[in-house]
Each structure stands twice: as C-alpha cells, then as structure tokens.
C-alpha cells in the first residue's frame, strides 16, 4: 500500500464529506493519502488492524476463509465507507481478509488518531456507528441472498455493487473471482453470466466486464441490492454510492 504525497480536496469519501467542517478540520492533518493496487491484501484474516482506510475510489472486498481454505466475500467497501471498521468499534483484530478488488485510493487514519478523533467529535462517533449499522445490513443481506436466491440474481446484484464503485461502465472481472465472491463453482457463474449477456445486460470478454443495460440489470437482481441502498440512505443520508452515469 503505497503512500501518495499529493491529494486534491474536496473529499470523495462519503463519510468524510458528511462530517461538519470543524470536525473534519481536526482530522485533516492526520489523514494520509494511499494507493490501493489491484489484489493487494490490506490486512489478512485474523490480522491486526492498525488503521482505518476511508476509500476514495475503487473497491475492497472483505473475505471470510474457512478451515478447508474455501473463501467467500461477506462485504464490500467503496467510497461510501471505510476499511477497518472493527477498529472504530474498539477491536484491533479482524476475522476477515480485506483485499482490493478494484484499484483506487484511500485516506489512511491510524488507530491513535481515530481514537482521538472519536473522543473529540460526537459527530464522528455517531457517523461511524450509523455506518456500522448500515454495513451490518449489507453483510446480513449478503448471507441471506447467498442462501436463498438463484445465481443469476446474485450475480446481477454483485455486478450492480461493483458498477456503483467503478469509475465507468467497464471494469476488470474474472469468472474465478466471481466464483469466490458468490461462493459457487465457476460453471455456475459462467452459465449465469451467459444468461445476462444473452439478455443484453452485460458484455464480458477477456477478463473485462461492461454493464450495457443498468436498468435491466437492476430488474434482474433480487431485492437485496435496493434494500441495502435504502438502509444506507436512511442511516447516512445518501445511497451507499451513486451509480455511474
């Protein structure tokens, strides 16, 4: 995770942008711009969380690993939130791995500065607690969705989540990655992707995914996508992120 020495304000991160100016001014000197290279592990499963990362662009997946080595995505963070939420809740350990799935940038705030900021700012404390509640909804819906909905709906939902956090309609994506994210075998992902492509909703080739019909993809998804967005809007005042376009 490389540190960048240049940063252009205003903040793109939704949490930072939502803070009152005086609270943000106290945090600003401690925020350090960092780059998030594709596939970088920000912290491993059962690893120590030394800082939170307010994502400015790109996407980070939180991945649970079972004893047999199988992995599945349990949560996603983009510019609506932060990586390292356990630290904000008083725990410096995380049971899940944080891995960059779309390259981007973030603002790093170390543990001591976060603790000081939360002690000094009721607005920051309240905002992070509301984000924790919204993120818990995302995780809960991911579990329910993976257990109850068909693969095509789950794939459509995940592609919408990824599209929201991308800078355009096209982004890198492989069937192997989608298989891990959805917790299904690659043939099932390939079949679901083929059905969505045949319907004209996506275009997929050579590890690149393009969303060609956003409204159609939303219609093909289950209710979990919109339920999570409504909860982010209720708790944080916005949707979890604004779709491109």
Describe this protein's structure.
Pfam families: cNMP_binding, HTH_Crp_2. Keywords: DNA-binding, Transcription, Transcription regulation. It comes from uncultured Acetobacteraceae bacterium. GO terms for molecular function: DNA binding; DNA-binding transcription factor activity. This is cAMP-binding proteins - catabolite gene activator and regulatory subunit of cAMP-dependent protein kinases. The chain folds into 2 domains: 108 residues, Jelly Rolls; 91 residues, Arc Repressor Mutant, subunit A. It contains 10 helices and 11 strands. Helix 5 runs antiparallel to helix 10, helix 6 crosses helix 8 and helix 6 crosses helix 9. Strands 1, 2, 4, 5, 6 and 8 form a 6-stranded antiparallel β-sheet that branches. It has a 3-stranded antiparallel β-sheet with strand order 9-11-10. It is globular, with a radius of gyration of 18 Å. The chain is 44% helix and 25% strand. It has 245 residues and is an alpha+beta fold.
Share of helical residues: 40-55%
Briefly, what CATH class of the largest domain? Mainly Beta
What characteristic shape results from the CA principal axes?
A: globular
Count of spatially separate domains: 2
Q: What is the count of helical runs? A: 10
Biggest β-sheet strands, sense, barrel: 6 strands, antiparallel
Note the beta-strand portion.
15-25%
InterPro entries: cNMP-bd_dom (IPR000595), cNMP-bd_dom_sf (IPR018490), Env_Response_Regulators (IPR050397), HTH_CRP (IPR012318), RmlC-like_jellyroll (IPR014710), WH-like_DNA-bd_sf (IPR036388), WH_DNA-bd_sf (IPR036390)
Domain HTH crp-type: 149-215
Keywords: DNA-binding, Transcription, Transcription regulation
Pfam family, one: cNMP_binding
